[in-house]
TrEMBL record:
Biased composition (Basic and acidic residues): 65-74, 98-109
Transmembrane segments: 165-191
Superkingdom classification of source: Bacteria
UniProt protein name: Uncharacterized protein
Length: 366
Protein backbone atom coordinates (compact mmCIF):
# COMPACT_ATOMS: atom_id res chain seq x y z
CA UNK A 1 0.00 0.00 0.00
CA UNK A 2 1.38 3.41 -0.93
CA UNK A 3 2.47 5.70 1.90
CA UNK A 4 0.97 9.12 2.46
CA UNK A 5 4.16 10.73 1.09
CA UNK A 6 4.01 8.63 -2.07
CA UNK A 7 0.35 9.55 -2.50
CA UNK A 8 1.17 13.26 -2.09
CA UNK A 9 4.06 13.04 -4.56
CA UNK A 10 1.92 11.25 -7.13
CA UNK A 11 -0.68 13.97 -6.71
CA UNK A 12 1.89 16.65 -7.54
CA UNK A 13 3.26 14.60 -10.45
CA UNK A 14 -0.25 14.41 -11.88
CA UNK A 15 -0.30 18.23 -12.11
CA UNK A 16 2.42 18.27 -14.78
CA UNK A 17 4.31 16.06 -17.22
CA UNK A 18 5.22 13.13 -15.02
CA UNK A 19 7.14 11.52 -17.93
CA UNK A 20 9.70 14.31 -17.83
CA UNK A 21 12.62 13.25 -15.55
CA UNK A 22 13.44 16.91 -14.78
CA UNK A 23 9.88 17.55 -13.71
CA UNK A 24 9.86 14.49 -11.41
CA UNK A 25 13.13 15.57 -9.87
CA UNK A 26 11.66 18.98 -9.04
CA UNK A 27 8.75 17.30 -7.26
CA UNK A 28 11.16 15.09 -5.24
CA UNK A 29 13.29 18.11 -4.29
CA UNK A 30 10.21 20.08 -3.25
CA UNK A 31 9.09 17.20 -1.04
CA UNK A 32 12.55 16.95 0.53
CA UNK A 33 12.56 20.69 1.28
CA UNK A 34 9.10 20.40 2.84
CA UNK A 35 10.34 17.63 5.17
CA UNK A 36 13.32 19.83 6.12
CA UNK A 37 11.05 22.75 6.95
CA UNK A 38 8.76 20.57 9.09
CA UNK A 39 11.74 19.13 10.98
CA UNK A 40 13.10 22.64 11.60
CA UNK A 41 9.75 23.84 12.86
CA UNK A 42 8.91 20.82 15.06
CA UNK A 43 12.49 20.05 16.18
CA UNK A 44 11.83 16.33 15.71
CA UNK A 45 14.79 14.74 13.91
CA UNK A 46 13.40 11.23 14.33
CA UNK A 47 10.20 12.15 12.52
CA UNK A 48 12.21 13.81 9.73
CA UNK A 49 14.35 10.69 9.24
CA UNK A 50 11.25 8.52 9.11
CA UNK A 51 9.61 10.77 6.55
CA UNK A 52 12.79 10.81 4.46
CA UNK A 53 12.83 7.05 4.53
CA UNK A 54 9.23 7.06 3.27
CA UNK A 55 10.27 9.58 0.62
CA UNK A 56 13.10 7.32 -0.56
CA UNK A 57 10.74 4.37 -0.86
CA UNK A 58 8.20 6.55 -2.68
CA UNK A 59 10.84 7.74 -5.17
CA UNK A 60 12.06 4.18 -5.76
CA UNK A 61 8.54 2.94 -6.31
CA UNK A 62 7.64 5.75 -8.71
CA UNK A 63 10.90 5.54 -10.69
CA UNK A 64 10.51 1.79 -11.02
CA UNK A 65 7.35 2.46 -13.01
CA UNK A 66 9.43 4.45 -15.51
CA UNK A 67 11.99 1.66 -15.95
CA UNK A 68 14.75 3.35 -13.98
CA UNK A 69 16.53 1.70 -11.02
CA UNK A 70 17.81 4.38 -8.70
CA UNK A 71 19.87 1.85 -6.70
CA UNK A 72 22.49 1.45 -9.47
CA UNK A 73 23.10 5.09 -10.46
CA UNK A 74 26.87 5.87 -10.25
CA UNK A 75 27.64 9.36 -8.97
CA UNK A 76 30.56 11.57 -8.08
CA UNK A 77 30.73 13.04 -4.57
CA UNK A 78 29.96 16.70 -4.16
CA UNK A 79 31.29 16.90 -0.59
CA UNK A 80 33.40 14.71 1.72
CA UNK A 81 30.28 13.05 3.13
CA UNK A 82 29.13 11.55 -0.19
CA UNK A 83 30.14 8.17 -1.66
CA UNK A 84 33.32 7.96 -3.73
CA UNK A 85 33.31 7.83 -7.54
CA UNK A 86 32.08 4.54 -8.95
CA UNK A 87 29.94 3.65 -5.93
CA UNK A 88 26.21 3.17 -6.46
CA UNK A 89 23.80 5.71 -5.09
CA UNK A 90 20.13 5.27 -4.22
CA UNK A 91 17.35 7.80 -3.99
CA UNK A 92 18.49 8.45 -0.43
CA UNK A 93 21.35 10.51 -1.88
CA UNK A 94 18.83 12.94 -3.23
CA UNK A 95 16.76 13.46 -0.11
CA UNK A 96 19.78 14.73 1.83
CA UNK A 97 19.36 18.06 0.08
CA UNK A 98 17.80 19.81 3.07
CA UNK A 99 20.75 18.97 5.30
CA UNK A 100 23.19 20.57 2.84
CA UNK A 101 21.05 23.45 1.63
CA UNK A 102 20.92 26.37 4.09
CA UNK A 103 17.82 27.72 2.34
CA UNK A 104 15.68 24.72 3.31
CA UNK A 105 15.05 26.07 6.81
CA UNK A 106 11.72 27.89 6.20
CA UNK A 107 8.84 27.32 8.67
CA UNK A 108 5.79 25.75 6.99
CA UNK A 109 2.73 23.66 7.85
CA UNK A 110 3.79 20.13 8.98
CA UNK A 111 1.45 18.36 6.57
CA UNK A 112 3.54 17.50 3.51
CA UNK A 113 1.01 18.49 0.86
CA UNK A 114 0.56 21.88 2.55
CA UNK A 115 4.21 22.26 3.53
CA UNK A 116 5.25 22.36 -0.13
CA UNK A 117 5.03 26.15 -0.52
CA UNK A 118 3.63 28.09 -3.43
CA UNK A 119 7.24 28.69 -4.48
CA UNK A 120 7.76 24.91 -4.62
CA UNK A 121 4.55 24.51 -6.57
CA UNK A 122 5.83 26.92 -9.20
CA UNK A 123 9.15 25.10 -9.18
CA UNK A 124 7.58 21.70 -9.81
CA UNK A 125 5.50 22.99 -12.70
CA UNK A 126 2.01 23.29 -11.23
CA UNK A 127 -0.62 25.62 -12.62
CA UNK A 128 1.79 28.56 -12.42
CA UNK A 129 4.70 26.97 -14.33
CA UNK A 130 5.81 24.08 -16.50
CA UNK A 131 8.85 22.71 -14.79
CA UNK A 132 11.11 25.73 -15.34
CA UNK A 133 13.09 26.73 -12.23
CA UNK A 134 13.03 30.33 -11.13
CA UNK A 135 16.23 32.21 -10.30
CA UNK A 136 16.42 31.11 -6.64
CA UNK A 137 15.68 27.45 -7.45
CA UNK A 138 18.37 27.46 -10.09
CA UNK A 139 20.84 28.71 -7.49
CA UNK A 140 19.63 26.05 -5.03
CA UNK A 141 20.27 23.35 -7.62
CA UNK A 142 23.75 24.71 -8.22
CA UNK A 143 24.51 24.74 -4.49
CA UNK A 144 23.11 21.29 -3.82
CA UNK A 145 25.10 19.50 -6.48
CA UNK A 146 22.07 17.41 -7.52
CA UNK A 147 22.19 18.68 -11.09
CA UNK A 148 25.43 16.84 -11.78
CA UNK A 149 24.82 13.72 -9.65
CA UNK A 150 21.39 12.22 -10.24
CA UNK A 151 18.21 12.63 -12.19
CA UNK A 152 15.25 10.39 -12.81
CA UNK A 153 15.89 8.46 -16.01
CA UNK A 154 19.48 9.57 -16.49
CA UNK A 155 21.91 12.43 -16.20
CA UNK A 156 20.28 15.76 -15.49
CA UNK A 157 21.23 18.97 -17.27
CA UNK A 158 22.15 21.67 -14.78
CA UNK A 159 24.77 24.00 -13.44
CA UNK A 160 27.73 21.69 -14.16
CA UNK A 161 26.89 21.30 -17.86
CA UNK A 162 29.19 23.41 -20.03
CA UNK A 163 27.44 26.22 -21.79
CA UNK A 164 27.69 25.91 -25.57
CA UNK A 165 27.55 29.64 -26.29
CA UNK A 166 31.23 30.23 -25.48
CA UNK A 167 32.46 27.74 -28.04
CA UNK A 168 29.89 28.92 -30.56
CA UNK A 169 31.10 32.50 -30.19
CA UNK A 170 34.70 31.45 -30.82
CA UNK A 171 33.72 29.46 -33.91
CA UNK A 172 31.63 32.36 -35.24
CA UNK A 173 34.53 34.76 -34.69
CA UNK A 174 36.93 32.46 -36.53
CA UNK A 175 34.52 32.13 -39.46
CA UNK A 176 34.10 35.92 -39.62
CA UNK A 177 37.87 36.45 -39.57
CA UNK A 178 38.29 33.89 -42.34
CA UNK A 179 35.68 35.64 -44.50
CA UNK A 180 37.33 39.03 -43.94
CA UNK A 181 40.72 37.56 -44.83
CA UNK A 182 39.38 36.07 -48.07
CA UNK A 183 37.73 39.39 -49.00
CA UNK A 184 40.95 41.31 -48.33
CA UNK A 185 42.98 38.80 -50.36
CA UNK A 186 40.54 39.02 -53.28
CA UNK A 187 40.61 42.82 -53.20
CA UNK A 188 44.41 42.79 -53.12
CA UNK A 189 44.49 40.54 -56.19
CA UNK A 190 41.94 42.67 -58.08
CA UNK A 191 43.45 46.03 -57.14
CA UNK A 192 46.09 46.07 -59.94
CA UNK A 193 43.40 45.23 -62.52
CA UNK A 194 41.03 47.90 -61.21
CA UNK A 195 43.73 50.57 -61.01
CA UNK A 196 44.81 49.72 -64.55
CA UNK A 197 41.23 50.02 -65.81
CA UNK A 198 40.62 53.48 -64.37
CA UNK A 199 44.09 55.01 -64.58
CA UNK A 200 45.37 56.86 -67.63
CA UNK A 201 48.04 55.00 -69.60
CA UNK A 202 51.53 55.59 -68.34
CA UNK A 203 53.81 57.54 -70.59
CA UNK A 204 57.42 56.62 -71.10
CA UNK A 205 60.19 59.15 -70.83
CA UNK A 206 60.44 61.36 -73.86
CA UNK A 207 59.02 64.55 -75.33
CA UNK A 208 55.63 65.79 -74.24
CA UNK A 209 52.67 66.03 -76.60
CA UNK A 210 53.24 69.76 -76.98
CA UNK A 211 56.89 69.19 -77.79
CA UNK A 212 55.99 66.53 -80.35
CA UNK A 213 53.47 68.81 -82.07
CA UNK A 214 55.96 71.67 -82.05
CA UNK A 215 58.64 69.45 -83.55
CA UNK A 216 56.28 68.26 -86.27
CA UNK A 217 55.28 71.82 -87.11
CA UNK A 218 58.94 72.85 -87.08
CA UNK A 219 59.47 70.28 -89.77
CA UNK A 220 56.70 71.96 -91.76
CA UNK A 221 58.74 75.12 -92.13
CA UNK A 222 58.41 76.91 -88.77
CA UNK A 223 61.44 78.92 -87.72
CA UNK A 224 61.80 79.48 -83.97
CA UNK A 225 62.62 83.07 -83.11
CA UNK A 226 62.07 82.92 -79.32
CA UNK A 227 61.41 79.86 -77.08
CA UNK A 228 61.24 81.46 -73.64
CA UNK A 229 64.93 81.23 -72.83
CA UNK A 230 66.76 83.72 -75.11
CA UNK A 231 66.71 86.80 -72.90
CA UNK A 232 69.29 88.42 -75.18
CA UNK A 233 66.69 88.35 -77.99
CA UNK A 234 64.44 90.79 -76.04
CA UNK A 235 64.79 94.55 -76.17
CA UNK A 236 63.07 96.86 -73.69
CA UNK A 237 63.02 100.62 -73.47
CA UNK A 238 61.27 103.47 -71.71
CA UNK A 239 61.48 101.70 -68.33
CA UNK A 240 60.05 98.34 -69.40
CA UNK A 241 61.06 95.14 -67.52
CA UNK A 242 61.68 91.53 -68.54
CA UNK A 243 61.70 88.74 -65.90
CA UNK A 244 62.40 85.05 -66.56
CA UNK A 245 59.84 82.69 -64.95
CA UNK A 246 58.53 79.14 -65.12
CA UNK A 247 54.93 78.58 -66.16
CA UNK A 248 52.52 76.31 -64.30
CA UNK A 249 53.11 73.60 -66.92
CA UNK A 250 56.89 73.83 -66.40
CA UNK A 251 57.65 75.80 -69.57
CA UNK A 252 60.26 78.58 -69.47
CA UNK A 253 58.63 81.98 -70.04
CA UNK A 254 59.31 85.68 -69.64
CA UNK A 255 57.01 88.20 -68.05
CA UNK A 256 57.23 91.54 -69.82
CA UNK A 257 56.03 94.73 -68.13
CA UNK A 258 55.61 98.02 -70.00
CA UNK A 259 57.18 101.27 -68.85
CA UNK A 260 55.39 104.10 -67.11
CA UNK A 261 54.74 105.90 -70.35
CA UNK A 262 51.73 104.87 -72.44
CA UNK A 263 52.64 103.04 -75.63
CA UNK A 264 56.02 101.76 -74.30
CA UNK A 265 56.87 98.57 -76.20
CA UNK A 266 59.07 95.53 -75.58
CA UNK A 267 60.45 93.87 -78.72
CA UNK A 268 61.39 90.33 -79.68
CA UNK A 269 64.35 90.57 -82.09
CA UNK A 270 64.33 88.74 -85.46
CA UNK A 271 67.96 88.19 -86.52
CA UNK A 272 69.38 88.86 -90.02
CA UNK A 273 69.70 85.14 -90.74
CA UNK A 274 65.97 84.59 -90.22
CA UNK A 275 65.07 87.68 -92.21
CA UNK A 276 67.25 86.56 -95.15
CA UNK A 277 65.39 83.25 -95.25
CA UNK A 278 61.99 84.95 -95.27
CA UNK A 279 62.57 88.15 -97.28
CA UNK A 280 60.25 88.59 -100.23
CA UNK A 281 57.75 86.16 -98.71
CA UNK A 282 54.37 86.41 -97.10
CA UNK A 283 55.06 85.16 -93.59
CA UNK A 284 52.80 83.69 -90.90
CA UNK A 285 53.75 84.59 -87.34
CA UNK A 286 52.63 82.72 -84.18
CA UNK A 287 53.04 84.44 -80.81
CA UNK A 288 52.15 82.31 -77.77
CA UNK A 289 51.28 84.37 -74.71
CA UNK A 290 49.30 84.03 -71.49
CA UNK A 291 48.27 85.61 -68.25
CA UNK A 292 47.75 84.69 -64.62
CA UNK A 293 44.73 82.53 -63.66
CA UNK A 294 41.46 84.45 -63.44
CA UNK A 295 43.06 87.47 -65.14
CA UNK A 296 42.68 89.05 -68.58
CA UNK A 297 45.14 91.18 -70.57
CA UNK A 298 44.96 93.24 -73.76
CA UNK A 299 48.08 93.88 -75.84
CA UNK A 300 49.08 95.11 -79.30
CA UNK A 301 51.68 93.81 -81.79
CA UNK A 302 53.63 95.62 -84.52
CA UNK A 303 56.02 93.95 -87.02
CA UNK A 304 58.90 96.40 -87.67
CA UNK A 305 61.07 95.67 -90.73
CA UNK A 306 62.90 98.34 -92.76
CA UNK A 307 61.59 100.98 -90.35
CA UNK A 308 57.90 100.31 -90.90
CA UNK A 309 55.28 97.88 -89.62
CA UNK A 310 54.60 95.00 -91.96
CA UNK A 311 51.50 93.70 -90.11
CA UNK A 312 49.77 96.91 -89.16
CA UNK A 313 48.87 97.13 -85.50
CA UNK A 314 47.37 93.89 -84.26
CA UNK A 315 45.32 93.92 -81.03
CA UNK A 316 44.63 90.80 -78.96
CA UNK A 317 43.02 89.80 -75.67
CA UNK A 318 44.24 86.83 -73.62
CA UNK A 319 42.38 85.33 -70.63
CA UNK A 320 44.05 81.93 -70.28
CA UNK A 321 47.41 80.75 -69.02
CA UNK A 322 48.59 79.87 -72.53
CA UNK A 323 47.16 80.81 -75.92
CA UNK A 324 48.64 81.11 -79.46
CA UNK A 325 47.93 84.18 -81.62
CA UNK A 326 48.50 83.97 -85.40
CA UNK A 327 48.88 86.95 -87.74
CA UNK A 328 50.30 87.61 -91.23
CA UNK A 329 53.53 89.56 -91.93
CA UNK A 330 54.35 90.92 -95.39
CA UNK A 331 58.11 90.79 -95.96
CA UNK A 332 58.03 91.47 -99.67
CA UNK A 333 60.38 94.21 -100.91
CA UNK A 334 62.67 94.32 -97.85
CA UNK A 335 66.41 94.32 -98.28
CA UNK A 336 67.75 92.09 -95.50
CA UNK A 337 68.78 93.40 -92.14
CA UNK A 338 66.95 92.50 -88.94
CA UNK A 339 63.50 93.12 -87.59
CA UNK A 340 61.45 93.33 -84.38
CA UNK A 341 58.08 92.12 -83.17
CA UNK A 342 57.10 94.96 -80.81
CA UNK A 343 54.57 94.22 -78.03
CA UNK A 344 52.71 96.81 -75.96
CA UNK A 345 51.24 95.04 -72.83
CA UNK A 346 49.75 98.19 -71.32
CA UNK A 347 46.38 98.19 -73.06
CA UNK A 348 43.33 97.84 -70.83
CA UNK A 349 43.69 96.60 -67.22
CA UNK A 350 47.15 95.49 -66.18
CA UNK A 351 50.56 96.22 -67.60
CA UNK A 352 52.22 92.81 -67.92
CA UNK A 353 52.10 89.79 -70.22
CA UNK A 354 53.59 86.28 -70.11
CA UNK A 355 55.38 85.37 -73.39
CA UNK A 356 56.09 81.71 -74.22
CA UNK A 357 57.38 81.75 -77.79
CA UNK A 358 57.51 83.37 -81.24
CA UNK A 359 57.96 81.55 -84.51
CA UNK A 360 57.67 82.38 -88.23
CA UNK A 361 57.16 80.46 -91.46
CA UNK A 362 56.52 81.34 -95.10
CA UNK A 363 53.01 80.96 -96.41
CA UNK A 364 52.96 78.49 -99.30
CA UNK A 365 51.23 79.64 -102.47
CA UNK A 366 51.07 83.25 -101.38
Amino acid sequence: MASEIETSIRGFLAQGDSKDPDYRLKVYEAADRAIGRMAEKNGDDAEAKAKRADLVEAIEAIEAEYGHDVHDEPVEPTDPGEPAAGESRSAAAMVGLSERDPRSAKGEDPVLSEAISSEDRIDIGGKNGVGEPNGEDAREEDASGLSSTWRPGGERSGANRKRPWGGGLVVSSLILLLILFLLAAGLWLLLPLLSGAFSPPKTTEGPTIEETIAAAEEGEGWISVFDGTQLDAISSSDGGRVVAETALDGSPVVRITGGPEAGAEIALLVGPGVVSRLEGESVRAELTAGTDPDASREFSVRCLFDGETRCGRQRFTVSTERQPFVFEVDLSGIEGGDGRIAIDPSLGVGNDLVVYSLRLKPVEGA
